[in-house]
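Quick one, probably user error.
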């Protein structure tokens, strides 16, 4: 039997190749600037969360994790991609790692208590959850029916 439809050089049916076969391109300048901005916003949220999480237990911890979730999901909605979650999450992780390192004077921001570990592990879990939820694009149009 003869195959119908147009085939691409990669063998995938249809006019376009699979998403994996497409070449990588740089994002537009505006989107790249947005990624840098939300990366820095993730770092600021980590700093603010580090100061608040131990101050008012358990409210401070919940406030810090909700702030992180807000910036992660906000980045996804602002850019329309899942990379919008990764950029502030990466900024959050870099800031938290830099804040946990002890200084030569012996000062550090995080104590060795359960609340600090809940903030660190909870923030990573929130980042994974937000990346999983992300912004899912749905087809637009008045008569669109999914599943057909």
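Nope, works fine. Designed sequence:
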């Amino acid at each position: 039997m003869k195959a119908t439809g147009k085939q691409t050089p990669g063998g995938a049916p249809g006019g376009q190749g699979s998403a994996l076969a497409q070449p990588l391109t740089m994002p537009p300048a505006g989107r790249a600037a947005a990624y840098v901005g939300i990366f820095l916003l993730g770092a600021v949220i980590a700093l603010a969360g580090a100061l608040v999480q131990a101050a008012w237990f358990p409210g401070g911890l919940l406030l810090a994790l909700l702030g992180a979730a807000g910036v992660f999901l906000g980045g996804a909605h602002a850019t329309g991609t899942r990379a919008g979650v990764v950029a502030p999450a990466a900024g959050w992780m870099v800031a938290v790692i830099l804040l946990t390192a002890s200084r030569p004077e012996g000062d550090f921001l995080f104590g060795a208590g359960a609340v600090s570990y809940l903030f660190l592990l909870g923030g990573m879990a929130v980042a994974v959850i937000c990346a999983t939820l992300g912004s899912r694009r749905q087809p637009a149009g008045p008569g669109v029916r999914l599943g057909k």
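The two ends are 26 Å apart (CA to CA).
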